[in-house]
Amino acid sequence: MSKSLKIGLGAAVVVGLWVVGRITEAVQWYKIPTPSNYPTIKVGDHILASNLVKPERFNFICFYATGSDMVKQIWIQRLCGLEGDTIEIRNGVLLVNNKYADSNFSPGYLYIMSRSESEKIPELIEQSEMSTVNAAGDSTTTCLSDKIVRDHGLNAERVVLATDEKDEMIEQRYKTSWNADHFGPIVVPRGKYFVLGDNRRNAMDSRYIGFIDKSDYIGTVLGR
After folding, report:
1. Residues 52, 115: one domain?
2. Which residue in 117, 158, 159, 202 could disulfide with 110, CB within 3.0 to 4.6 Å?
3. pTM score, two decimals?
4. Nearest-CA neighbor of 142 among 182, 169, 115, 172?
5. What is the per-residue pLDDT across 149-199, written as a single tens digit (0 to 9) for each?
6. Which residues pair with 64 in a beta bridge?
7. Which has the closest alpha carbon to 190: 215, 219, 221?
8. Is 111 within 8 Å of 158 (Cβ atoms)?
C-alpha cells in the first residue's frame, strides 16, 4: 500500500470517527456565546465535551435547558449539586453539604473599584462584558475572580446583595424570598442536578431555571 493511500485511509477513518462521535454525542464541540461562565470560560472560547465521561461534582457539563417557558437550548454550566446534596449560597459564596465549595475552582464575583484601579486591568474589564462605570465616572463594577484581584493587587470590594433584596424570578421559581447571593439551603432531588454559572451575578442557572433533569445531560466538558 502506497504512503499516500495510507494517509488517505487514515484521514477517512478520523473523519468517520468524528462524524459518528458527533451523531452519538460521544464527541461534542461548542463555541461559547455568552459570558455566563466568565472568567473561567470566555465568550468565543471553544470547548470539547463527551457523553462517555461520567459527570462529577464541579465539572462543567452540557445539558438541554428545557424549562416550560424556554426554547430548548444547549447550555454549559458547572455541576455543583448531585442528587441528595444540600446547596446553599451564603453572602455570594457556594456551600455544598454545609462546606464552602468555591475554593475548588475560581468563580467570578461582582467587584467595585476606583476608576484608577480598573485601569490596571483594561483587557479584563473589556472581557467581562458586564463592566459598568458609575454616573460620576469615578468607580467601576465588574466580574472578577478572587485570584485575579489578588494577583493584580487590586484595591477592590466585593458587591453582595442584601439578604432582604428580593429577586422576583427566584421567588417565583422556589416560592421563597431568596436572591442570587443568599440562596437555600435546598436539597437536590433524585434524578436532578444543580448547576451554576461561574459568573455568579450574570448567569441564568439553577437559581433561576430550577434543577436540571439527568435525562437532559448531554456531556461533560473535557477541555478547551
Report:
1. no
2. 159
3. 0.85
4. 115
5. 999 999 999 999 999 999 999 999 999 999 999 999 999 999 999 999 999
6. 74
7. 215
8. yes
